[in-house]
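Help wanted!
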Amino acid sequence: MLDKALTGSKRYWTLVFILLSLIGAGTLAYLYQFKNGLGVTGMSRDVSWGFYISQFTFLVGVAASAVMLVIPYYLHNYKKFGKIVILGEFLAVGAVTMCLLFIVVDMGQPMRMLNVILHPTPNSILFWDATVLNGYLFLNIVIGWATLHAEKKGLPPAGWVKPLIYLSIPWAVSIHTVTAFLYAGLPGRHFWLTAIMAARFLASAFAAGPALLIILALIVRKYSKFDAGNEAIQSIGKIVAYAMTANVFFIILELFTAFYSQIPGHMHAFQYLFVGLEGHSKLVPLMWTSAILAVVALVMLIPPSIRNKESNLVVACVAVFISLWIDKGFGLVIGGFVPNPFDGVTEYWPTLPETLITLGVWATGFLVLTILYKVAISVREELGTAGAEK
Amino acid sequence: MSIDRRKFLKLAGLAGVGLGLSTSDLLFKGDAVASSSHSKAMAKERLAMVIDMRKFRTEEDYKRVIDACHSIHNVPTLIAEKNNPKNEVKWIWKDSYEHTFPDQSDDFHPEALKEKSFLLLCNHCDNPPCVRVCPTKATFKREDGLVIQDPHRCIGCRFCMAGCPYGSRSFNWVDPRLYLEKTDPAYPTRTMGVVEKCTFCVERLAKGLGPACAEQSNGGMVFGNLSDPNSEVRKLLASNYAIRRKPSLGTLPSVFYIIGGDENAG
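Answered by r_m:
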């Protein structure tokens, strides 16, 4: 089926080449980092994880969100998701690819990465994270490919696919839970040391991932014959509305605990992020952008009368995605390192090479996504099943 | 065989503890005596350092011990000045009371204490979070309590730096060999992209020597076996009020600080 990715319109190839050139720029930047060390990034002794690990964290959520389509379709037999579920699975593949790449570019000694397997260490959450992420990548490639292949031949998916699909449901939850545990189990990092972290991660994941999926499905509909169906898109909109509400609720819980208890360690990171701490306030504009976008998104998502109009839904989804990208793809990780163990503030901002590498990784994920979507769309265009069901 | 209630409870308690220990061992390695600060189950040997801040009076007192450590361990001290302070590598350094003990500092402490510098180094915790989080066992705890880093196995993920609540760990953001004042051939230099920290001079201990900082401290830093009630560290702790950094986190540091009163004001 991969051959379908080798033929395409001029527009398709333009997109592929744009992505390839971004990947090229990222690769050059990575070679520069590889030669000169991670010192070329904005990371420091005090803020020892930065953009790479925060992008990784955010994208684990995007990957996990495929389960929001798999559950209704396979467990509740919600047929309207029949067409779009493949987009969710392939989005997961692209997202996990980015996650793994972000971990690799963050390593000081990437040539030694197999040490994680050669010296397996079950007491390290990172060991489990590597395990569940690779497993999830494998599951989604196999499931997506096998079901699409069967569809192409006009057959139902092979019998062995079903158990894998069921397995992928708890597995999706596990990848984001384990990722939350990377943070939530560290003594002395008050911002992360919260029992609600995994729940918050899942809520934000199930908002940001499906929001991106709606945007992608609409782009696909615009530029190809593939139509996921209005009802499917509206249903996902509902999922985004609930998940985003839960996410904002969880953040309010965090704020209550921090500011009602008045324990300084619990308040500091929030203060740093939203009003600045000891005169340091680099992230304040970003975090307020995130907060305002979250409110805008909720106002547009909760009343059905607004949400049901597709143009509104798109705006709301873009707001959700950007809001959560800032919150999780930036604030959460950096905020955890402020204040540092000496109660001082070291600020962080990504450098140019770091930004180029980050863009390169995103481009790689989107290239994988583009190719997989191209295959899925072409298969259905040939079968004549790409259009919306009447 | 009859068994009275007291005996039964004792046995049941022991069994419970055993069960807890054996299952927790899988996930929480490195915290054999996690719940108590000086448990009866303490290892035969637990090496520790008592820093008597009363003995540190002049700049020279600090500089001597810091230089002793950094020079023999090829610590790239020129990074802050010639590269970028954010990329700094340090094994032992000084900072204010407020920064050393952020949870225990007070506006009403004596001025002299507030202005005094404290020595910071790896705490060689009895329950080290860095060991718990390391995905390759590059950081591990020895039976004598030393928390050691194998630079050849480290993948540079920096999970240990996020895990350490004391900021004791440095990452080699740049090539450390470019920032050495001079190289001591007796100790290995490190490569870029790995984490390093104080080792309590494990290489000197193997030769029967004590840590280099303690040797240069004029009695300000005393090193010994915390498990031995007759050791010098235990005697110091028994006769002076000493504190540890962030005790509420349960990491059980092996570095103790004798703060002293007015007499340390020098």
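OP: Thanks! One thing I noticed: Chain B has a mean pLDDT of 88.
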